[in-house]
């Protein structure tokens, strides 16, 4: 089973492209299912946030051409997409996923939302049966790694989220936030966080407008905010000094004429617009208007980048932790990869049988070929029966991810894990007794592989 | 310096410049105290230094020798006008800084060395407040000046280019204040208007050369 991770993020692609690829949360499950139907893909997961669209798959054999899948699926031609895509395989993919989950690859390093987003993708993929044992193991390890990074470094501690960047910018414009009014358009997690930050810094009141009125009401109760009906948005937006949009609208909600109206009614008092939606909600053109300060998610990044320096030492520590976690995961995968052990056990038993037969060669010389054949089949049958239960338990333990049991069974048979031993054993076996039927052992070793790969 | 000369009023160009420097520094300290921003020092203090140092390098060409210099009205006249100049200089500086900060926020690339700039709204408030204060100073100064002139010279005095320009400047100032207040002008347009008034102010200063009745060297 191979792991492949491909996609694009804020470092490789501009928001103009990311918003064309973005998948709405409610479509995530269906998209994952569609991905799974692509030939060659056994397990899959799609991560789509405002900063990245990534496809993580487990596959057998050659690379399924994922970039082609993306091209077709989002009707973006290959030339546009290709330069922005990255692809990581196996250990690289594991490392990348760990970095993403622990927010080291985030636009604002250390921001806490990304882990939740990865979890959402995971549960969406689970709901359509796209998560098998391999992905399950990978994601659980990623969650563990992320938690470890969070608890053992200060990466999330300093004020390092989109929200705090927004607060900093608001301060640059308005000085103190005392008495300022904030309007949230769209009730998302990110905007909620930004609003909370702004209120903590002294913003006076909060207005919430959301397409589903009930949701706005619910959120308003939490923040003691006022609800603005979505239809009244344009009529009342000028009341706000800071406007944060995060709706799922596919087209711009606020364009230049709207902003001109706002400014006119505000008598040119400046307005700070934050667009954290992907696709964007506010036409970037309006930033040309005097008195309008529009920041979209990419702009916040460049500001956040200047905060990065102070966190780089923590980020280094986090990277070191992740490196350990990646190694640990690889080891775990190796341990749980019981195929070599199965082969090893069988070849060792076969070796033993052959040795016994050879040792008794003299005494068996008097037997006829048909009698010899009976002995051959009895010994083989015995061997297989004896091995059957331990091998089944080993396979089951691997399936469950029970490394302790796997190690125990291995040590009971005095077998070490890892492919190397299996290779050596195979060589040792083939060297001394060339007369042993090679086809048979090959057939035996082929069997467990097919059993293993069923799950 | 003024105390040395035993009078509370600046007489002569050099002394006027020194007093302007003093007023600028005072304004800077007031802004520092009120808004806690040092940024204006970058512009104000070198200007004040220049206004103090340059006059001390040479003898004053334009000395104002008249028995009237001990009159309280004239003191009001000069102080009022000079504080208006100082306030206007600050207003223009604030508008310019506003413009720089605005461009910086718009372009979203933040070079670190500009981080010391105060927030936009503070800058706007400074520009507004200094404008209003300057207007008060200008009005008081002009009023006092007109009273003195009316008293001593009569209507003839008002036909001089420097006097016209002074009133023109006052008129411009009213327009600027009105426009800024009503439209909430900021940024580039505010800078245009401020610089226009500032230019008018400079020309009033320069008109000293053309004036026949209000030169510092006038008899």
Task: Give a structural overview.
The complex is a heterodimer of chains A (455) and B (219). Chain A is of the alpha/beta class. Chain A is elongated. In chain A, helix 5 crosses helix 7. Chain A is built from 18 helices and 10 strands. Chain A has 3 domains: 2-152, Glutamyl-tRNA reductase, N-terminal domain (Beta Polymerase, domain 2); 162-304, Rossmann fold; 337-452, no CATH class. In chain B, 37% of the residues are buried. Chain B has helices at residues 13-35, 41-56, 72-107, 120-152, 161-183, 187-206. Chain B is an all-alpha fold and 219 residues long. Chain B contains 6 helices and no strands. Chain B has one domain. Chain A binds chain B through residues 169, 171-175, 266-270, 287, 290-291, 293, 295, 299, 302-303, 306, and chain B through 101-102, 105-106, 108-110, 112, 118-122, 182-189.
How do you describe this structure in short?
By secondary structure, chain A is of the alpha/beta class.
Can you give keywords for this protein?
heterodimer, A: 455 residues, alpha/beta, Beta Polymerase, domain 2, Rossmann fold, 3 domains, four-stranded antiparallel beta sheet, 18 helices, elongated, B: 219 residues, mainly alpha, globular, disordered N terminus
CATH architecture of the largest domain in chain A: 2-Layer Sandwich
Indicate the overall shape of chain B: globular
Count the beta strands of chain A: 10
Instruction: Round the Cα radius of gyration of chain B to an integer and report it.
Output: 18 Å
Helix content of chain B: 55-70%
- CATH level 4 superfamily of the largest domain in chain A: Glutamyl-tRNA reductase, N-terminal domain
Mean pLDDT of chain B equals: 71
- Overall CATH class of the largest domain in chain A: Alpha Beta
Structural domain tally of chain A: 3
Shape annotation of chain A: elongated
Specify the helix fraction band of chain A: 55-70%
By DSSP (H or I, 4+ residues per run), the number of helices of chain A equals 18
Task: Please state how the strands of the largest beta sheet of chain A are arranged side by side.
Answer: 7-6-5-8-9-10
SS-based class of chain B: mainly alpha
- What does the average pLDDT of chain A come to? 81
CATH fold topology of the largest domain in chain A: Beta Polymerase, domain 2
Radius of gyration of chain A: 30 Å
